[in-house]
Amino acid sequence: MSIRRAQSGFTLIELIVAIVIISIGVVGVLAAYISSVKGSADAVVGKQLVSIAEEMMEEVLLKPHAVNGGAPANALTACGPGASRAAFDDIRDYNGYQTTGICDIDGGAVSGLSGYGVAVQVQTVNLGGIANTLRVTVTASRGTQNLVLDGFRTAY
Length: 156
Prior knowledge:
There is one protein chain. The protein has one helix spanning 12-61; strands at 77-78, 98-100, 116-127, 130-142, 145-153. The protein is of the alpha+beta class. The chain has one domain (40-153). A hairpin with a 2-residue loop joins β4 (130-142) and β5 (145-153). The model has no long low-confidence stretch (mean pLDDT 88).
């Protein structure tokens, strides 16, 4: 008489099927994780663009409406002495100001923001019957992403 021992465990085929099913699940979870990581980087760039544009808008609008004297000849420049805004004494001086990289008021580069840029346009408009109103447009950019802010200043 032969006695059969009860065998326990998995067969090789059951093990392979289990590995395939687990692998498919892990790939799905990783795909969702990768797409959420890509989206979170875009939010950081968006927040930085907002901060850059708001800072520049605040700096411009805090200047006097108009001071006698000529405005500087602004041209696209990288951070450095040519990007200094220290001598800007009124809002109109900012017209045409644009940089590659974000610069402090003395033209020094702000670390970590070299891939960004900022541009300022100032136009005289008639705002609801108020003549000599200045419209300030600040554009902050990084690659193909742009953020545009508009502000108005009257001669008060």
